Amino acid sequence: MKKFFQYLLLIVLFSLWGIMLTNRDQTRETVQEVRMVAQRKLGIDQPCSKPLEYAIGNIDPKFGIAQSEFTQLVAQAAEVWNKADGKTLLAYNPAASFKINLVYDNRQEQSNASVQLEQNLQSLEATNNSLTQQYNSLSVDYRKKIDTYNKDVADYKNDLDKYNAEVSYWNSQGGASSDVYNKLKKEKSALDDEYGKIKQEGVVVNTLANQANGVTKKENQVAANYNNSLSTYKSQYGDAQEFEKGVFDGQEINIYQFKAVADLRLTLVHELGHYLGMQHVQNSKSIMYYLIGDQDMNNLMLTAEDNHELNKICKLN
Ligand SMILES: [Zn+2]
Predict the structure, then answer these.
(1) The domain boundary residue, chosen from 179, 206, 237
(2) Are 136 and 175 within one domain?
(3) Residue 244, domain member (yes or no)
(4) pLDDT tens for residues 141-186?
(5) Can you give the residue range of the structural domain that contains 127?
(6) Do 233 and 185 reside in the same domain of the chain?
């Protein structure tokens, strides 16, 4: 461009038209110059025209993540941007001066505590489900047994009444023959057996009832524990979290906090977006939204707002 205008300037050396063109060209250059300075401050040379390079810096071993795994995650995060524009915007170079670090402090300590609490909640929920199953199975068993028990008790009462009526009758007759006496003796013995059986059934029914009540008591304890843990969790970690989990400061990206691979990856994509020069956007599902929470962590994709912002940056050049 410059050469062309210089050539033009030679031809129309002293014409006003020529001077105007030259001025316009100079203005454009100046604007570009200013923009270049601003981009250098952000650590960006020429967005989208050639890859911005990054390296992996310090990884605090307290995070319990291997260098290779972290490097792979950063590559996946970079790929979200590379895919969006169809060209390599971000490239890994171990010698790059721009570093991505995992910095351990009280934020991750807190995060670990919240993961612990989540696991605790899950385990309480599992315990509660298992107790509910136990209760249901006991209560089915109990209902069957108590029906039989009640029926047997009614039968026994009936037989006993009949027997007592017979005995009173024969007593009122002044006694019974030995045949009748033996028959009544047999009846009495059968009644005793019946009573013994009912007594045993009663023990089984009571045991089942006690077991079911014990399970209910445990369930109530677990539920109280769960509600307690849940309200602690909600008060401490319930709301969407700001991206202070990671910080891009123009020189490097520091990641301070993550719960799992999924939110670490999202944080990396977000901070790499800042490295590319992206600002925050307004859609809560966007990668570049200032909060983490609404994004689909298992399928990280740029939203229309993210893409719009990226296009704006890439057109700067
Ligand atoms: Zn941000």
Answers:
(1) 237
(2) yes
(3) no
(4) 999 999 999 999 999 999 999 999 999 999 999 988 999 999 999 9
(5) 109-237
(6) yes
* 226 & 133 share domain: yes
Distance 171 CA to ligand 1 centre (A): 101
Spacing, Cα 206 to ligand 1 middle (Å): 63
Number of domains in the chain: 3
- Ligand 1 center–CA 273 separation, angstroms: 8
Q: How far is the CA of 260 from the centre of ligand 1 (A)?
A: 19
Q: Are residues 232 and 260 in the same domain?
A: no
Residue 246 lies in a domain: no
CB atoms within 5 A of ion ligand 1 belong to 243
pLDDT at position 242:
62
Question: What's the rounded Cα separation, in Å, for the pair 50 and 48?
Answer: 6
Within-domain flag for 221: yes
Centre of ligand 1 from the C-alpha of residue 62, in Å:
25
Distance (angstroms) between ligand 1 centre and the Cα of 33 equals: 27
How many angstroms separate the alpha carbon of residue 148 from the centre of ligand 1? 69
Same domain, 118 and 225: yes
Let me know whether 32 and 55 are in one domain. Answer: no
Considering the domain boundaries, does residue 242 fall inside one? Answer: no
Q: From the CA of 261, how far away is ligand 1's center (Å)?
A: 19
Q: What is the pLDDT of residues 223-276, one digit of tens each?
A: 998 988 888 888 877 666 666 789 999 899 999 988 889 999 999 999 999 999
From the CA of 288, how far away is ligand 1's center (Å)? 6
Rounded distance from Cα 82 to ligand 1 centre (Å): 19
β-sheet bridge partners, residue 253: 100, 248
